[in-house]
Amino acid sequence: MSTYDHPEIYDLLHASMKDYAREAMNIITVIASRVPHPASLLDVGCGTGLHLSYFAEHFTCVGIDLSSKQLEIARNRLPGIPLIEGDMREFALHERFDVITCLFGAIGYMRNVQDLGRAVGNMEAHLADGGVLILEPWYFTNAWISGLITHETLNHPDLKISRMTTTARHGRHSRMEMVYMVGEPGDITTFREHHTMGLFSVEEYLSAFTAAGLTAEYAPTAGPKGQFIASRSIPTPAP
Question: Domain span at residue 62?
Answer without folding.
Answer: 7-140+200-231
